[in-house]
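[step 3/7] fold_predict: job queued, chain A
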Amino acid sequence: MYVTHSVWVAAIAYHVVAGAVLWGDRNRMPEQIALKPDSGALFGLNALIGLSTGVLLYALWPLLGVPKDIGARLGQLGLTSWLGFGIYYCSVNPLIEELFWRRYLETPSSFPARNDILFAGYHMLVLALFVDWKWLLAAFGLLVLASWIWGHTARTRKGILVITASHLLADLGIIIAGSMHGR
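[step 4/7] structure written:
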């Protein structure tokens, strides 16, 4: 977005690059990337993580320092249809990110690791355009925690269905909260 000034170009480029890395280095991917179901409790915890994202964003919006003209700013970045972008983003982003960040860049650590910090840091580049700097620290910590939980779940369960569903719920909540406040 910093270079192209387009939400669409930035999102599609990110997904194409991550997809190309995954495709180009298929041999490095763990054999087991099953989208298999898991226990109800584990799904519940991960669903709560995903759902809480949109709820927190919606509830904290007035405190986050989001510019009053956010709708106009996003319009200048090409985001003119929340529905269109939401459909694209929620159908592509969760799977690409989970395959890339949790499976391709998988780490054996039981504690937050470099990949969790990089995942959170990447998202800070986007958030820095719209959120007051004081909230970036809180968002960074929450994203490191979510990344670690998703990574731990992927490692221990040898599958990504639960975390992809959780990530989908998080992305959907963000899109809904953003569309409600960012008109």
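[step 5/7] annotate
The first helix runs from residue 7 to 24.
The two ends are 20 Å apart (CA to CA).
exit 0
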